[in-house]
Every structure is written in structure tokens, then in C-alpha cells.
């Protein structure tokens, strides 16, 4: 066992050393298999935002819209008309929200740095999108559970994030080199998360994950004996 650090997704204290580069260590949870960076190696809030400010993700950028369509297209195939959604972690240029609105849906925006209106997190939604977001979360367990509570039964949670394969691939993986990336999910992690919530999991592309929240099952009414 490695350092006695708790997993930020499932809160397990059972972790192992997974990899270390010249800047930071990476641990893996032995319960949910999340790979994560210990909090001592996270950027502070100002440094983190400075990294995000370097991104140039514009609403009208065709290349960026093509990238986002890898989530938008399969999600749109599953949504009813005029659905209400949330673009969580939308960044300063909410292109995905614009694409979904053009398809006839209403989309609320939330981003802790650029659209920090926490009131939208008290709403209920038919779908929630988190594109290139979960790898940045310092408390992914709490944040994902909050989003799941915001999702109506029969709704979809759509996630874009690249997935961990194994140590060998991780060693040469460019994705880990972004200092704002502190959580790395694998297929097994999403399977664990979905099972714990009774969700139906679809991995529709190498970095596109859809989770369906089933309709709530009501207990059968008790009949009075004749």
C-alpha cells in the first residue's frame, strides 16, 4: 500500500502507487480503480484559472464544434424534443450548449470560473454534459453525485474524458502532463460508478461516456385482504 490518502471518488483509503514523473506522483484506488494526483500536488485556484485562460475554445470554431459533436451527436439521438439540460464546466466559450440549443433544447450553463451561478445546480435536468471536465475535479465523487441528483429519472449524463488503459500506456500519455488534470478514469471506474447508482453505461467512443438514469421503480401498492 502507498500513502494513506483517500480516493477522491469513492473515499477508499486503499490505494497503490501507479506512476510517478518528475513533477508529481499518481495513485490508483484499489476499490474503484480511479488514478489520481494527491492534493498536495494540485495547482492553487489562481494558477489553475491561468491555465484555463490560455485555452481558445470559441463557440464559432468549426474544429472545436467537430470535436464536441462526438458527444453531441450520440446524445441528441437519445433526447426527447425540447429537453432541458445543463452544460457543467462549460468554460468561457460554451460551444456545446450552443450546438444543443440549435437542435431545439434549452441549456443552462455552469462553470466554477466563468459561469459560477450555483443556483443552476439546484435545478432538475433531462440531460447533463461534462466535456473535458471530470479530469479537473478535485472532489469528483461529490461533484458527480451532485450532478446525478440534478438529473431526472430517464435522463442522460454525457461525459467526455480520455480513459486510462495501463501503466505502460500511462507513462507515455500526453493527457497526464496537463497540470490541471488530477483524476483519470478507466472503463472499469465508470463501470464501478454506474453499478453503484443503477445506471446504464454506454461507452460510445474512446473518450465518450453516456450514463442513463433509469426511471424510479415505485414499490407495489399493498392490497387490503378480501
TrEMBL record:
GO molecular-function terms, A-Z: methyltransferase activity
Record's keyword terms, sorted: Methyltransferase, Transferase
Gene Ontology BP terms: methylation
The protein, known as: Class I SAM-dependent methyltransferase
Keyword Methyltransferase appears in the UniProt entry: yes
Domain of life: Bacteria
Record carries keyword Kinase: no
Species name: Parahaliea aestuarii
Amino acid at each position: 500500500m502507498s500513502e494513506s490518502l483517500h480516493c477522491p471518488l469513492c473515499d477508499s483509503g486503499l490505494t497503490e502507487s501507479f506512476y510517478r514523473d518528475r513533477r508529481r506522483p499518481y495513485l490508483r484506488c484499489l476499490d474503484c480503480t480511479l488514478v489520481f494526483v494527491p492534493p498536495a500536488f494540485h495547482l492553487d485556484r489562481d494558477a489553475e484559472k491561468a491555465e484555463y485562460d490560455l485555452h481558445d475554445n470559441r463557440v464559432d470554431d468549426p474544429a472545436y464544434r467537430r470535436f464536441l459533436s462526438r458527444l453531441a451527436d450520440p446524445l441528441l439521438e437519445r433526447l426527447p424534443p425540447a429537453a432541458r439540460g445543463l452544460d457543467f464546466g462549460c468554460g468561457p466559450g460554451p460551444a456545446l450548449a450552443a450546438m444543443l440549443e440549435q437542435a431545439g433544447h434549452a441549456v443552462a450553463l455552469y462553470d466554477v470560473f466563468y459561469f459560477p451561478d450555483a443556483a443552476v445546480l439546484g435545478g432538475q435536468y433531462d440531460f447533463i454534459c461534462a466535456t473535458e471536465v471530470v479530469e479537473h475535479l478535485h472532489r469528483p465523487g461529490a461533484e458527480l453525485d451532485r450532478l446525478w441528483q440534478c438529473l431526472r429519472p430517464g435522463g442522460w449524463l454525457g461525459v467526455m474524458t480520455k480513459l486510462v488503459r495501463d501503466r505502460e500506456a500511462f507513462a507515455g500519455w500526453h493527457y497526464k502532463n496537463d497540470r490541471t488534470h488530477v483524476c483519470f478514469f478507466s472503463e472499469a471506474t465508470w463501470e464501478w460508478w454506474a453499478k453503484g447508482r443503477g445506471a446504464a453505461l454506454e461507452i460510445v467512443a474512446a473518450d465518450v461516456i453516456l450514463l442513463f438514469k433509469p426511471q424510479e421503480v415505485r414499490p407495489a401498492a399493498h392490497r387490503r385482504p378480501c
